[in-house]
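Example: HEAT repeat domain-containing protein.
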Amino acid sequence: MTLFELERNADFDQLITILEESSNPDIRKRSAEILGSLESETGERNTPREEVIDVLVAAAKDDEDEGVRAGAIDALDQYGQDALEQFIGEISGHDIDDVAQWKKAEILAKGLNADLPELRMAAATGLGRIGEDNVVNALVDRLSDPDPRVRMRVSRALARIGSTECVPALARRLHEDQYDVRIEVAYALADIGTENALRELVDVANDDDEVLRRIAVDALGRLGSVEAVEILATALSDDSDVVRRTAMFSLVQLLSQAPSGASHQVREKIVGELEEANEREAVQPLIEILDRSTETAQRRNAAWLLGRIADEEYVRDAQDALIETLGDDDEMTSKFAATSLALLAGDGLEQRLLELVESDRDEEMRVKALFVLGKIGGDRSRKKLSSFVERTDSDRLRKRGFSALSKLGGVGMPSGDIP
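Written out as structure tokens, the predicted fold is:
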């Protein structure tokens, strides 16, 4: 059974066995990461939370591979402060379970200077969770730690605390460090989100280094602000295909990250910018997201955007992608695909939807196709659907067919929302 299947089935026992016994460090590391991602399911699967934490603590302490140890520490972070403190206590000899928060912060700050890099990593992560402003200076000092794994976790901790004081120090690392650390630094600046943090990311988004530009536009997708939209829209015409595609992913991500009070403004700004962009640069990446992404929020937003920006040359490609999304496992994604299709009428769409309704494909796709036909259909749809509702054995398809007919002026049932 693959790790993917073990994750999908939340098979804690087998994942623990692999973490403890596999000879492949990459597989052990991935097992630790999966155990961290399954934190919310420990109680539901009759797997004691404490047992999983004990296994991760052992891996963080004793595994021979530094990548596995780092992965186990990050997994412990997902189990919360108590899990991190268990590891820190075992490795440092300090029992900090019942210590006041300020005292914990003091102990953890000392841990930033420990000889063992894993302890410095855990101390930085724990300080980020506690979130005390008085440890910012101690964390900033560790941005020059000789171990890049520590520098990465210090950056995450500073992002959690969100202090503006650390922006200049983070900005220096953004220009000086190795790429994997720079990614964490860029994310930290985006999460802090102040004007000076944004300015640093904007500067890097225009850097001559393609990798740095990609890192910056990736991080800007976390901001959820109107200010980031124009920068990302500009990046859609970058010379690098990788940067262009990352910019589109970030724009889609912005729709999810925008604060509720600004979401409409951000959404309208993105649509406006994409309408003005080159259609190949805007539409093709959205189609790719629908085709390849497994992130529900990304797929929802890509489906929503396609109906509002696809035009002329790429409308057929957009229609094809949306038709295939009508049966998406996520109900909201399939609804967005249907409403977007209704905005892209023409270019033979009516005939293709009629053929889909008559096919033996997934019933959910056919139900959504009937909804769209109720919006865009004409005389041909009325005739075809009048016959279809008499022949189909599916009550659900018959009901949706009658609803579509009523919208088209035929004899049917009262129309309603998307099923």
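The chain has 25 helices and no strands.
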